[in-house]
Amino acid sequence: MTRPIQTVALVGNPNAGKSALFNALTGARQKIANYPGVTVERKSGRMTLPSGELAELIDLPGSYSLDAASPDEEVTRRVILGEQQGQRRPDALILVLDANNLEQHLVFAQEIIALGLPVVAALNMVDLAKRDGLILDAKALENALGIPVVETVAVRRKGLTELSTALAKAADGHEIEPAISDDLDMAERRISARAMAKAAILSETRQRRLHRGLDKVLLNPWAGPVILVALLFVIFQAVFAWATPFADALDGAVMAISDWVVATFPSNILRDAITEGLLAGVGSVVVFLPQIVILFFFILLMEASGYMARAAFLMDRMMAFVGLSGRSFIPLLSSFACAIPGIMATRSIADPKDRLTTILIAPMMTCSARLPVYAVIIAAFIPARSVGPGIGLQGLVLFALYIAGIVGAMLVALILRRSAVKGDSSGFIMELPRYQMPRLRDLAIGLWQRAWIFLRRAGTIIFSVTVVLWLLLSFPQAGPGEDQVDASIAGHIANGLAVVVEPIGFNRDMALALIPAMAAREVAVSSLATTYAVASDDEEKTAQALEDRLAGDWTLPMALSFLAWFVFAPQCLSTIAVAKRETNGWKWPAFMLAYLFALAYLSAGATYWIALSAGL
Ligand SMILES: Nc1nc2c(ncn2[C@@H]2O[C@H](COP(=O)(O)OP(=O)(O)OP(=O)(O)O)[C@@H](O)[C@H]2O)c(=O)[nH]1
Ligand SMILES: [Mg+2]
């Protein structure tokens, strides 16, 4: 006896292609996109059965299990079980499986099949599987699952007729006896999913197997984070170890030019401007080009190879813990180059509270402008010795500074999500791109772009701010026996500010560096260099490396305090301006400015006093 099918539902894991199939079968235009969680409500349309009759087709949100964890999964559960008000319980189901993620998708599939409703499976995205060198055996899968399996390519409308024929047949008459038992628990379903997926693979290229093996290790909940941290650790070691010869060479070149200028030209104000402002100031920043290039070499490598998306995947759980979603990862990651593009990238975050929180913590990610500041202080105060096989102390301190910013950001997010920006975090699971050998050309272009951005900053903003500072430091000229810096306009301002920052261990020169560094953080370095160059009346000393001057003038607690300040301080006005534009007002940027300054002051102070009492 034939029972007419009236209602059919599409079920399956997120991003399996349910909505694409829905559109293909009904001619509707549901939104589909290549990330999970697109469909969050049930949608219905009409599909034509082979008999010519119409049936209602329901598109459901993707789900991992019938034990609903989120509101959209709850919708799926209620519709399938017939508990949804105003919705007929489906007479049959189309189970959509992504051929490329069979092992994962077969877990939920077993739960669906065990319900005992007529089910047909659409083995979708077989086109992508073929492209990647994976050939599946639909018949083997059919036998294992005990339901018809039809290969489909939803976006090319392939396999649709076969699918609806199989659907009509499955729903026709006889109650089916599911081949899947319903008393398995999650772990047992996983094991049998793996076995079924393995049995369904006819052939797989070596490369695909290799990539899957890699993912098993890199995404392992235990090994994955360890590898990620180890990798970052190596990167920061390299930033110091590899850059040193290049940085020394650049440093030597700047000093040689300075010596030559002093020897060649008569002593006058223009010569001072060149040696003290341009060469000492801007030169002190430019020497960090090798560090910047090495850091971005690794970042670009991780992006191009496909590892970065895996890192985001690993971070997702930690992000969820502090009330953010994995979607915040990419904006936060871009903030390691600069917070401005990072804050702009938050536009991809749909949830306004998620987005606001991400904007507020983005400035704590260590941007590349901080690298020269960190590097110069580390080079001056942290001895270049190893604290273990292959582990340099300098790289370790740099690593710790980056981690301090990340930990600070996560703590602030945690607090914000429970107070000022209260709300639930939205779940998100990343689609992982394929592994790829990075292309040398792309890498070279990427590096060139980063280097150019850095040099352009040095030539424009850092140069102009340093020149203005040099003028303010050089005038009015000091009388005999008077300190030039103290006598200058800049010195007067700095002495005023020094009162405020004295409790956290800053001296006048450090206070002086803070104001111009609001234009760009690197200026902290050039301004220190220019200050010391102006202060020394001896030409020999003008050319002395900044690191030596710092090591002579500051104590270790002062240096550590300065580093701690730069981890948190909102030392960059452009970031505040962008935050204002992206949040449409002054309220949040003002809040950002206030809490970051407070955090910087407190952490610098704590660092100073702890270091002092530890006898450093
Ligand atoms: N190449 C290829 N792409 C497909 C196929 N089916 C779907 N896609 C693509 O896969 C992505 C996900 O498809 P959706 O239809 O949005 O997936 P969904 O199952 O509805 O996902 P959720 O609504 O998040 O549960 C989209 O980018 C589709 O264009 C297919 O057979 N072949
Ligand atoms: Mg969908």
Automatic annotation (TrEMBL):
Domain of life assignment: Bacteria
A family per Pfam: FeoB_N
PROSITE patterns in the cross-refs: G_FEOB (PS51711)
Gene Ontology CC entries for this record: plasma membrane
Ranges that cross the membrane: 217-243, 277-301, 321-344, 356-384, 396-416, 454-473, 558-579, 591-611
Sample GO molecular function, one term: ferrous iron transmembrane transporter activity
Keyword Electron transport: no
Record-linked InterPro entries: Fe2_transport_prot_B_C, FeoB_GTPase, G_FEOB_dom, Gate_dom, GTP-bd, P-loop_NTPase
Keyword vocabulary terms for this entry: Membrane, Transmembrane, Transmembrane helix
Domain FeoB-type G stretches: 5-173
PANTHER family linked: FE(2+) TRANSPORTER FEOB, FERROUS IRON TRANSPORT PROTEIN B
Name under which the protein is recorded: Ferrous iron transport protein B
Gene (UniProt): feoB
